[in-house]
Design goal:
Layout lengths: L2 H25 L1 H78 L4 H11 L2 H4 L2 H23 L8 H16 L1 H13 L6
Length: about 200
Amino acid sequence: MSRGASEFALGALAATAFWTVVTLFGQDPTRFKDFAGPAATVFAAITAGWIAYRLGQSQIAVAKVQADIAERNWKTSNEKIVLDLFDKRLAIFEEIRGIVGEACRGGTAPDELFFRYGRAIDRVAYFFGEDVQSYVEKIRLHLINLNLATTMMQDIAGPERPTWIKKRGDEFMAIAKFYEEAPRLFGPYMKAHQTA
């Protein structure tokens, strides 16, 4: 029942009770005494029921507001988790990209660079799927092979030098493809979703 309808019903009931009392009182005052007790009880019960109904309606409204606030709080917390996850994934990706960039600029992967790469990919399993894990492992192997080829081709008089030069070029190109392949693999994990 709407607010206006419930107030109208209460007003109609009060008016009916008033005119009934006036009618009864005007005819015979002794009858008023017999009618007053039960009429007051009925009127009080109806009034109490109406007040309980109105309080119930206000409690429902309060519960709805509380539910809306709880939902907003959940959404805010979830968005914070999603943003934190994005920040961590981005930091890992940028560290890996920086190390790959150094290898591409220098054309080699010295031990220090290789160890930094190993530390950078340690967290990949916790923030990315199997596809990214396999890919960063493949890059790790290319870095090892690039360093080996660079070391082996230093022997200028060695008969296998041309083979090592070609191997170094192949490994370098495989590492340089990071800039082409990484966005496709890392991209889905870097997009900010609504849920973690």
